[in-house]
Amino acid sequence: MYNLLRKNIERKIPLTDEEWNIIVSKAELIKLKKNQFLQIQDSNNSYEGFILKGSFKTYILNENGTESVIFFSFENEWMCDLESFYHQKPTTYNIKAIEDSEILVINKAQKTQLFAEVPKIIQFHVLMIERANVAIQQRLLDVLNKTSKQRYLDFKDRYPQKVQTINNKNLSSYLGVSHEFLSKIKRIVS
To answer: Residue 82 above 90 pLDDT?
Structure first.
């Protein structure tokens, strides 16, 4: 069941069965139904997670009660509220399942133990953080430099199997446009 995680790690570093067993012993499997939260904004509950199945949205709830979707995360991807996890601060984001999902999570204390018991996992960790920083930087550049239509087309190209499963409310929030404008974009590019 956890083979997806092992393959993900072993793309970057080889693991012995003993090292793999240590990793699995630190991870916790969480199953969430659609619309259940993994993390709630301003809480003290933060995980680093690897998605085995399903999809999540990472978003903030603004003062006026509207959602701003920052990221979507899908099967075989990592997700984390970086500042909260690494600096043990209250969470910045809500992380909610947008379909029935299964995720392997680890908390900060377990990850620290994992580094001590399997030191080479630190190399994988550095690669993950580099990838997360690049993704955050790319998201910012896309928002600042691309049109809504370009961002939609990029999303559609990157996640063709998921674009139809994400409702217009979430997708329009992610793109920073109204529902009506998203419908117009979809009509133009269809």
So the answer is: no
